[in-house]
């Protein structure tokens, strides 16, 4: 009895502990958004020498190769690169023989992460990013992302078209993306280099990868514009934005060419097909197997003669077709002229005579008679 009471008390304590754990987990989940939310206008304090007065114990260095066509530009801007890195107490060297750039820490270097930023800077310079943009990586609120797009599309022609689609006509699509994400984007060869804040870089990577997967960048630009407007509203900032964002359906316009002859698949059956009949089986079925060879020959000759007779009859019919006269057209008899349909020939003759006497454009006969009479009267008056 005592053991049963002890077991019951242990079970009750375990149940109470598990319930307490669940309540704590719920409270932690409820508190998480409050902890993760960053207040507006907050900036991380800058890392100074006071935070690490003793400097670094070990020296670390990074090196990157650059192409031949970048040699002239790097030669010109290298003094500026050295000045920018000297402020962070980092040594930079340019080797034109090997075609490489190296950065390494010194005893004065106090920021342990600045060497990573210097490494990113020489990487960007090697990938055709101008010095004015590459220097921004040394700031605390800036980061960079190098997206490799060469392996996303197999066909070279298709790859070039999609890369051009990302740039847009006269670089308009790339400029719109830069304004919305607050990032500098450089499309060069098989890579896309981007410099900007972390949130913007995330959006740039998404747009670039989707563009190479045949999704037009204009759709993503439209969603970014809507998100930008929604972020300005303090009430909608904490709500779900799915109802406001547009939903685009992917359409496959290019249909696969269908073959002219379509083979219809038969229904699958586990049983094998029936065995075809042999020549002996066919002869047994017809009864030819039991006939003599002379009888078989007679039968074959009879079949050949029957076929010949059919062919002859068809040929004769075709020959006779040439002697068959064609069907003549039915002759339509002329209708007898009725009294109504008869034409008055005398009247037509009179009209023709009058038309011959008249000149083209001449006045009618009554007018001419009146004119003649008036002219005679005038002559008589003059004589008197």
Task: Write a short abstract of this structure.
With 384 residues, the chain is mainly alpha-helical. The protein is 49% helix and 9% strand. The strands form two sheets. The chain has a three-stranded antiparallel beta sheet, covered by helices on one side. A three-stranded antiparallel beta sheet has the order 4-6-5, sandwiched between helices.
Key features?
disordered N terminus; three-stranded antiparallel beta sheet; 6 strands; 384 residues; mainly alpha; flat
Question: Layout of SSEs?
Answer:
Blueprint: H1 2-36, E1 61-65, H2 71-86, E2 90-95, E3 100-105, H3 114-126, H4 131-134, E4 143-148, H5 156-167, H6 172-181, E5 184-188, E6 191-196, H7 198-212, H8 217-232, H9 279-286, H10 293-321, H11 345-357, H12 365-383
Antiparallel strand pairs: 1-3, 2-3, 4-6, 5-6
Helix pairs in contact: 6-8
Description of the structure:
The chain is mainly alpha-helical and 384 residues long. The strands form two sheets. A three-stranded antiparallel sheet has the order 1-3-2, covered by helices on one side. Mean pLDDT is 82; it is low at 1-12 and 29-35. It has helices at 2-36, 71-86, 114-126, 131-134, 156-167, 172-181, 198-212, 217-232, 279-286, 293-321, 345-357, 365-383, and strands at residues 61-65, 90-95, 100-105, 143-148, 184-188, 191-196. It is flat and about 135 Å long. It is built from twelve helices and six strands.
